[in-house]
């Protein structure tokens, strides 16, 4: 598909098995509008369907991952229009339901819906220039695609309240210290580092990757006892796949495994 608000590259910079999805509305600091979220849902659907893809990287520009939902598109909407269009949820659902890992590579602003989009991904790697925030309070509204829930789980109640009620931004170091971000790189190294990470994930067994992702996600949704029981079941079930035999044989034979996804 020819995208107008995204740039989609397969195996960028030689990163085998990786799809790079770049949000591309530079005139609006990558503000998320209906078209962009619709295109994102299509791009993720294609990446999900392509067996050659093992990991997805979502990024923006040097200045902005995304500066939020498109305020100009939203400003005149009525309650009925927002409700009927189920505004935003299709794009959000595509990210939430993707079974392949998605890494958010965040440089510059990740505000409002942009911060929420990054938090929907499996983990966030930040440039030292990254700024996270939920400034919806300044517009007389609230986060609408998970910000109050996910930010609170990432950074705890006190900091989430502080961020959401004051609308202040958090820099990369504070975000890493608070558990929102996994790692920080200098801005010019962000993409090469994230692509190398993504290629490493893409070279693993896609079956094991999908099950590991499902298990970590389950830690958010269930009790410890249920989560541990699910982990044990999936751990046992991984022994049904050739990839487990290959991974363990390769270790014993002191060679690199070649996973086939079966
Ligand atoms: N929406 C639309 N346009 C935007 C947005 C946005 N969120 N952010 C920036 N832009 C546009 C600006 O209007 C400007 O356009 P123009 O040149 O035509 O005036 C262009 O991008 C460049 O922006 P600035 O000139 O403002 O750039 P600065 O470097 O001076 O400032 C900031 C950068 C600080 C990021 C500033 O642009 C800003 O504060 N942006 C808005 C941030 C914000 O409030 N985000 C939250 C939006 S609400 C939201 O995300 C709710 C999500 C939940 C929706 C769920 C629905 C169900």
Detailed description of the structure:
By secondary structure, the protein is an alpha/beta fold. It folds into 2 domains: 6-203, 2-enoyl-CoA Hydratase, Chain A, domain 1; 206-253, Lyase 2-enoyl-coa Hydratase, Chain  A, domain 2 (Orthogonal Bundle), CATH 1.10.12. Helix content is 47%, strand content 16%. It has 12 helices and 10 strands. It has helices at 34-49, 71-74, 79-85, 89-97, 113-120, 147-155, 157-166, 172-177, 190-202, 206-221, 224-237, 242-252, and strands spanning 6-10, 18-23, 55-59, 64-66, 102-106, 109-111, 123-127, 131-133, 169-171, 183-185. The strands form 2 sheets. The chain has a 6-stranded mixed beta sheet with strand order 1-2-3-5-7-10, with helices on both faces. Strands 4-6-8-9 form a 4-stranded mixed beta sheet. Helix 1 (34-49) links the parallel strand 2 and strand 3. Helix 1 (34-49) packs parallel to helix 4, helix 6 (147-155) crosses helix 7 (157-166) and helix 10 runs antiparallel to helix 11 (224-237). The two termini are 29 Å apart. The mean pLDDT is 96. Bound molecules: octanoyl-coenzyme A. Octanoyl-coenzyme A (CO8) is lined by residues 28-29, 31, 67-72, 87-88, 109, 111-113, 135-136, 139, 143-145. One of its GO terms (molecular function) is enoyl-CoA hydratase activity. Belongs to the enoyl-CoA hydratase/isomerase family. One of its GO terms (biological process) is fatty acid beta-oxidation. It catalyses: a 4-saturated-(3S)-3-hydroxyacyl-CoA = a (3E)-enoyl-CoA + H2O; a (3S)-3-hydroxyacyl-CoA = a (2E)-enoyl-CoA + H2O. Keywords: Fatty acid metabolism, Lipid metabolism, Lyase.
